[in-house]
Amino acid sequence: MQIVTFENGPFMVNTYLVYNEESKASFLIDPGSGIQPILDKIERDRLGLQAIVNTHGHIDHVAGVCMVKERFNVPFYMNVRDMDLVESIPMQASMFGVKNPGIPAVDFDIPLNGTLSVAGFDVAVLHTPGHSKGSVSLRINDAVFTGDALFNFSIGRTDLPGGNYEELITSIREKLFTLPSDTRILPGHGPETIIGVEIEFNPFFS
C-alpha cells in the first residue's frame, strides 16, 4: 500500500491517495478544493482511480468530490448520516466565504462499522462520531485515516452542526485508542502521529 498525502485548499485539508503499487488501483480519501496536482498525478502515473471515500461531510473534505467525479467518473462513498452536511454545502460556502463547489451525489452509503472493499483494499470502518454524526475512521493495515476526529495532539471541533464533545471523546477512547499503539494516524489536518503517542501525550486525554 502506498499513501500520498496532499495538503490543499483554504482549510489546508489532507487529501489522501491510496494505491496498490503492483495493480495501480487507487482511491481518494477526502478530496479538497485544491487537488488538481494529485488528479494530474493519477493520470500521469496511470493509477486506476476506482472510488472517492469520505470520512465525513464538511465542505473542506467534500469540496473536490464533484471535480473528481466529473474527471474520472468514479463513485462517491460516505455515510449518509452526514447527508444533511453535504446538502448544506452552499450554506457552508457562504458561511466560510469560499466558492460553492456544488453538491455531489452519494453513490454508496458507508456502513458505520464493518469492512469496505475498495480498489482491492479491505478497509475497516470505525464509526467515530462527535465531530459530525456520520464521521468514520478508515483503517487499512497499520494506518488509520481519522478525518477530523483525532489530530496530532488535538481533536476535532465539536461546535459545528452535528458535533458533540462527549461523544467525540468516547469515540476516540473506544474506537481509536484500542488500536495497536504503533498504528499510524493520518488525520484530516496537520501532521501524522501514532496511537501510542496520542494516548500518552494528547492534552484532551491527560
Give a verbal description of the structure:
The N and C termini lie far apart (33 Å). By secondary structure, the protein is of the alpha/beta class. A hairpin with a 5-residue loop joins strand 2 and strand 3 (25-29). The chain has 7 helices and 14 strands. It has helices at residues 36-44, 59-62, 65-72, 83-87, 89-96, 165-176, 195-201; strands at residues 2-8, 13-19, 25-29, 48-53, 76-78, 108-109, 114-118, 121-127, 136-140, 143-147, 150-151, 154-155, 184-187, 193-194. It has a single domain (2-201), classed as Ribonuclease Z/Hydroxyacylglutathione hydrolase-like (Metallo-beta-lactamase, Chain A). The protein is globular, with a radius of gyration of 16 Å. The strands form 3 sheets. The chain has a 6-stranded mixed beta sheet, covered by helices on one side. Strands 7-8-9-10-13-14 form a 6-stranded mixed beta sheet. Strands 11-12 form a two-stranded antiparallel sheet.
